[in-house]
Design goal:
Layout lengths: L4 E4 L5 H10 L1 E3 L9 H8 L4 E3 L20 E3 L10 H6 L3 E3 L6 H17 L1 H9 L20 E5 L3 H14 L2 E5 L6 H6 L3 E2 L2 H7 L2 E4 L13 H4 L7 E4 L8 H10 L4 E4 L18 E3 L8 H19 L10
Parallel strand pairs: 1-2, 1-3, 3-4, 4-5, 6-7, 6-9, 7-8, 9-10, 10-11, 11-12
Helix pairs in contact: 1-11, 4-6
Bound molecules: (2R)-2,3-dihydroxypropanoic acid (DGY).
Length: 322
């Protein structure tokens, strides 16, 4: 029996590419250049399994071809706002993602951004490298203490809980959160966390960390009005999706001192960065590194492989979205 044909849109870590080659008739992307919508359409018409990642918009148009041969979309990444699940379901496609394996790494980045923004770590390093440092003094680059402060999570799923665990058990922080689908009470009790509305989280927190999905339901949730509800000394962290924040509203808030700072790993319209952010010394900016550890990126690939294995064995893949 011939091996199923698998098309992968971007370069994956070497060990998982080696397994793909062993198991499938695979088309890899050595150049690592993103596919155009036309190329994705063509790929869907010429494979059994199509493996995009979170930067490939597999939208209704890409899924509109009348000659789709793919039966499964095995997406590499946990977020799925780049996939039109309704369109995929209507075409009879199975769609999977890669949850769990990137939880700890993404929580590490959220916590890293929180610490960096609170303690001016990026700014301090730039200061040192510029040769401007004249030595220790009592009032030099004073920042905000983290221990014992309140962390507010908007969205309280796996990554938020892992961030809360770091903040609560590592830094003695109080946890408040908002989520339309809260976890079990025993999970909430573990952190002594308090559930409240988004607005209350914004008003009561010293640090606000976004952990909700992207897409139309959360588009610009953090707009001018809601950012304005945050405390003047508060810091906003985003390791979720860029479009949850209205860039212009945040840039103005950072420049006017409406809030004290931000730590951002994701941006609306990324990889294009709104130049306004570059003028904000009080913003820590990272290029979407949440899951970027070697171990995690291999585990994400292995999770796609496991989903494909199950699908081609006639089982229900564990990460089936539709
Ligand atoms: C995801 O998986 O959704 C992240 O944004 C990238 O790892």
């Amino acid at each position: 029996m011939s091996k199923p044909k698998v098309i992968v849109t971007r370069k994956w870590p070497e060990p998982v590419e080696a397994k793909l080659k062993e198991l499938y008739d695979v088309q890899l992307n050595e150049s690592d250049v993103a596919m155009t919508p036309a190329q994705m359409k063509d790929a869907l018409a010429n494979c059994d399994a199509f493996c995009p990642t979170v930067t490939d918009p597999v939208n209704a148009d890409v899924l509109s071809g009348d000659n789709i041969s793919a039966k499964i979309i095995g997406s590499y990444g946990v977020g799925y706002n780049h996939l039109d699940l309704d369109a995929a379901k209507a075409r009879g496609l199975t769609v999977t993602n890669t949850p769990e394996v990137l939880t700890d790494c993404t929580a590490d980045i959220a916590m890293g951004l929180l610490l960096s923004a609170a303690r001016r770590i990026g700014e301090g390093e730039r200061h040192l490298r510029s040769g401007e440092w004249t030595g220790w003094r009592p009032t030099h680059m004073m920042a905000t203490k983290v221990t014992g402060k309140t962390l507010g999570c908007i969205g309280f799923g796996r990554i938020a809980q892992a961030t809360a665990a770091r903040a609560h058990f590592g830094f003695g922080m109080n946890i408040v959160f908002s989520d339309p689908y809260p976890p079990l009470q025993e999970v909430i009790n573990k952190f002594g966390a308090t559930q409240m509305s988004v607005e209350d989280v914004l008003q009561k927190s010293d640090f606000v960390s976004l952990h909700c999905p992207g897409g139309k339901d959360t588009y610009h949730l953090l707009n001018e009005e809601r950012i304005g509800m945050m405390q003047k000394h508060a810091v906003l962290i985003n390791s979720a999706r860029g479009d949850v924040i209205d860039n212009q509203a945040l840039i103005s808030a950072l420049k006017n001192g409406t809030i004290a700072g931000a730590g951002l790993d994701v941006f609306e319209g990324e990889p294009k960065l709104d130049p306004g952010f570059l003028d904000c010394e009080n913003a820590v900016l990272l290029p979407h590194l949440g899951s970027a550890s070697i171990e995690t990126r291999i585990a994400m690939g292995e999770r796609v492989l496991e989903n494909l294995r199950a699908f081609f064995a006639g089982e229900t893949p564990r990460d089936k979205l539709v």
